[in-house]
Structure formats: C-alpha cells, structure tokens
Design brief:
alpha+beta; Immunoglobulin-like; Zincin-like; seven-stranded mixed β-sheet; binds zinc ion
C-alpha cells in the first residue's frame, strides 16, 4: 500500500503567473471543489472564496495531472501544479475535465479510475489546494442512479438528489448504486465487483471476512469498516497488481492485464493475501500510525505482509512445509535485495526489501515470542500490545515500541540481536547470525551459495577497489567481459577473463572464490588471466571479501 500520495520527482518550469502569486494563505480563504460525475464524464468546478493570481495544487502529481487534466475553457491554463488565467487577471473560479489515466504509473495514485462500466474512483488529494494555501472542501454532484462513498448528504433527508460532501484526503467512489454491495458481520462495503474476473470476487469476499474477523478478534481494537473498490483494466499490456489504502477505510485493489482472467493456485494466494494485506493497514497505518519521524516502511509493510500470509495460511489450510517455503521466499528476497546494506536506511523505503525483510523481522519476532512465552504470545499479541500502548499515546507507535514489545529488552535474545543487526548494521556476517537465530528457535536452515552469487561477489568486490568510476561486466559463453569507463587501475576499458588465481570462473568458482578471499584477507593482489592474450591483470585487494549471497531453505528439523 501507499498510505499517502507518493511524491514523484518534480521539475517544474514555472511561468510568470506563479512567481507573481500575490495572495497569501489565510485561514479564511478556501476553495470548494465540486466533482460532477456522469457515466461518461468527470468534471471539477473550483470556486475560490477570494480571487488569487495563481491556484496551486499539492505537489507530487504534476506528471499525472499533465496527462489527465484539461481546462474546460480556453481562458485557463495549467502548468505543473499551478492554474492561472491566460489573460493574467485574478482567478476566482475555473473548470477542468478529468480523464482516465491510461499510463498507470508505479508509485503514484491515478486521479480517476474506472469502476465497473460507469463509475469512478477519484483520488481527491491530487485535486485539493496545496496545504497552507486554501482550505479545500469537496462536494459531489451526480445523477440520481449514482451514489458516493465515503460521503455524506448535505441536503435535507428525502431530497432526490443534491450536494454530497466528501473527505479531501481519501479516494472517493462516485457511480451506479448497483455497483455497491454492503456486507454484514463483519461489516464492510464491496464496490466494483461487476467488472473484475469472476473468480476474484468470492476470494476477495472470503479473504475480507476472514481477515476482518481475525484482526478484530486478536488486535483488541476496532478499525473503520472498509470500503473496498475493485478495479480491473484488461487493456494494459503489462500485467500488474497494486493495492492502495487511503484514509476513511477506502481500499483500492487494481489488477491489470489479461493474465488475471484465469485463476491459478499462485494467483489465488496472491489475491487473498493482497486483500488481507491492505486490511491490516486499517490498523497499523490508519487507526494507529507511526509517530512523526518514524515512517519505517519495513515495519508497516512487513507487518501487513506477514499478517496477510498468516490469513492466507488459515484460508488455504497450507501445510507447515508450504508455510516454511513461503517464509524461505521472504528470506531469500530479503537477502537478494538488502545484501550488505542496513534495512533502516531510507533507500529501502517502498521497495521489495521493505516488504520481504519487514516480514522476516515479524516472523523472527513471532518465533522469539512463542519460544520465550511457551507459545502464549504470537504475532497478533505483539501487535495487540503495540496498539494498546498507542491508544494511550495519541494512537501513535514507533519502531522502538515494536522492538521493546516484540523482544525482551533486558535480556537481548539472539533473535533480537539479529533483527537489530539487519536494521542498523552493514555486512554479510549478519546473515550468518540470522540463520543461527532461526536454528536456535528450532528450525532447520540450509544455505547454499550458487556459482553465480560467488562469481558476482568476487568480481564486484575486486572491481570496486580498483575503480573510481563506473564499471560493469557481462557473461559471454565461458568468459567474463569487463567494461569500465576508465579510471579502473589495472583494468582496461575492456577486458575479458575466464580465470582468477588459476581457477576457472565457470567450472571452478568455489575454488576461485576461496583463493581470492584468502588473498584479500592478507592484503595481497589477485591475478586474473586474460582470455584473448597471454596477459594478466594484477588487481589490488585490501579489504576482506564478504560472504557470497546464499539461497536459504528453511524446514522442520
Ligand atoms: Zn502495504
């Protein structure tokens, strides 16, 4: 999920109307955005309480606005995040037309998505005024066969149609009433089932019921009844899935591409887990949330992923072997993406590492809690305690709260040390420590470095010590072609090698790796044999070589 609008790189060329913006923000100034939806058109009317030289949207969606927003009349122009009049006169109202976005970029919410045949899901935050300029109020207008959610009528009860108000910080559905299905016990709303492949709908219903029941029962705190909007776009060639949770319990699940037309065991698992994942965010990101300055993605993404895997395990009645295989997969994805870096570094936010490594830490915490409590505590009791503490602290929690509650602070276990090392330290030894932790918690773990991971580690380790500039290598038949952009010491701009320290890099990689490791540990150079001449490359190696990436298999002892 992405909790709030993701910020994309943004280079705006502002015109004069932006620079001459004269009206300062005032608590009294506001804008009313009226979304007018019919089955084939979506319009937004902006009415400002006071004229301004330039109206400004929130940052972060300029690219998507430029693709999908059009002035409805010629006297208005849109540039980046700004709207102004073409004649330079002050602006007191304007109209724009909103089109569906065909690009569906990663990491940014589309402004308008089609729901069913005739409905819309509108990401309102992209349409509101920049924070600190004008207060935004949102009103909705639509034909009498339409409804909205989340929304409230602002006209007297019984009126056939009228003005509805909607939150300015959530996705809002506007569309045909027959797209909306209210579900009871547990209560939630399903929207847009008519246009997703038929096999998906019952899975979403079962997963939502199971996840909401499990979470409500074990987390000790209620969360908002969710509004789940299903969106399917078969036209997109690139198959993908994306889940978004915004405030007011609105969850959008988006599938693209024809691969979703037919089910398979893997897709069934994925659909169930995706629903359960987003629903966990109702607790860990909406009802409760990380305190300011603690937006650790690994914590809220990892816990949502792990919770979803637990729910999927209940639903699929998977064997312990299958469960351990899915945990091995988390660990191997984490190992691959994180490698030598600390997970706490912000570069891993919103990456596969934040989900996979986050889920590994949650599993470690659950295993450790079960071990130390004699099976009395589990993943859900950890989060029950975190949310209990948060409810006494403005509904906020921190990374420290998780670490304090999940592990025993005064008696740091091996598991806790492993989790902290993964978060805060660099290096390959952490992985050996982590594997020892799993073993000490009663699991069997086998680790195997592949020829490719040994060769990658060896080449990158040696090249990085000679190269001040860029370098890369590719494999061709049984040779390694090294290319540099100069400044790589003994390595020419192009070299081809197939052996180091007398060991072949394809048929004898283990020995090559051991020989290079030995030389590097003793600050001795390593010698590559060139393939296309009798020459050699003698490269310095002054730092110890980290362990190669291993592939792990976790099983019962
Ligand atoms: Zn998520």
């Amino acid at each position: 999920m992405r909790l709030f609008s993701s910020v994309i790189a943004f280079a705006a060329i502002f015109s004069s109307f932006h620079n001459s913006c004269a009206v300062a923000a005032s608590a009294n100034n506001s804008v009313v955005v009226t979304l007018n939806a019919t089955s084939d058109k979506l319009l937004a009317h902006y009415e400002l309480s006071e004229p301004v030289d330039s109206f400004e949207w929130e940052d972060g969606a300029a690219e998507i606005r430029s693709r999908t927003l059009q002035p409805a009349a010629g006297d208005i122009r849109i540039e980046g995040s700004h709207v102004g009049r073409t004649d330079g006169a002050p602006l007191s109202h304007f109209d724009i037309q909103i089109a569906m976005d065909d690009a569906q970029p990663d990491g940014v919410y589309p402004i308008a998505s089609r729901v069913g045949d005739a409905g819309w899901l509108v990401h309102v935050p992209h349409l509101r005024a920049r924070t600190g300029t004008l207060d935004t109020k949102v009103e909705l207008k639509f034909p009498s066969a339409f409804v909205c959610a989340p929304c409230a009528s602002s006209t007297p009860a019984g009126a056939l149609s009228g003005i509805f108000s909607a939150p300015s910080d959530a996705d809002v559905f506007i569309g045909p009433a027959n797209e909306v299905q209210h579900q009871n016990s547990p209560a939630w709303t399903l929207i847009g089932a008519s246009h997703v492949p038929a096999w998906i709908v019952p899975l979403i219903q079962q997963a939502a019921n199971q996840a909401l029941t499990t979470y409500s029962e074990h987390l000790g705190q209620p969360a908002a009844a969710p509004i789940v909007v299903l969106i399917y776009d078969v036209r997109q060639a690139r198959p993908s899935y994306q889940g978004d949770t915004t405030t007011h319990g609105v969850i959008a699940l988006r599938w693209q591409g024809s691969m979703w037309q037919d089910s398979s065991d893997a897709l069934i698992d994925q659909v169930r887990a995706s629903m359960a994942h987003e629903l966990f965010h109702l607790w860990n990101a909406e009802t409760f949330h990380q305190a300011a300055g603690h937006s650790a993605w690994w914590l809220y993404e990892g816990s949502a992923q792990y919770a979803a895997q637990l729910v999927n395990r209940q639903m699929s009645k998977a064997s312990n072997t299958a469960w351990l295989a899915s945990m091995s997969q988390n660990l191997n994805t984490c190992r691959l993406k994180l490698d030598l870096e600390p997970l706490g570094a912000s570069g891993f936010d919103n990456t596969p590492a934040s989900n996979a490594c986050g889920a590994v830490i949650q599993w470690l915490a659950e295993l450790d809690s079960r071990w130390t409590s004699g099976n009395q505590r589990d993943f859900f009791s950890i989060w029950h305690s975190i949310f209990d503490a948060a409810s006494r602290n403005g509904n906020q929690y921190t990374v420290d709260d998780f670490l304090r509650i999940a592990f025993t602070p005064n008696d740091p276990s091996r598991a806790q040390r492993s989790a902290l090392a993964m978060l805060n330290e660099r290096g390959a030894e952490r992985w050996a420590g982590l594997i020892q932790s799993f073993r000490s918690l009663g699991l069997k773990v086998t680790a195997q470095a592949t020829d490719q991971s040994l060769r990658d580690r060896l080449l990158l380790h040696v090249l990085s010590q000679s190269c001040a500039a860029g370098y890369y290598y590719s494999l061709k038949d049984t040779r390694v072609q090294i290319k540099t952009s100069g400044g790589c010491g003994p390595f020419a701009d192009r070299s081809e090698t197939s052996a180091v320290e007398g060991h072949d890099l394809f048929t004898d990689v283990g020995a090559a790796f051991d020989a290079v490791s030995l030389n590097c540990s003793k600050n001795r150079p390593v010698t590559f044999t060139l393939s296309d001449s009798a020459g050699k490359i003698i490269a310095p190696c002054k730092t110890a070589m980290p362990a190669a990436r291993e592939t792990y298999t976790i099983s019962e002892p």
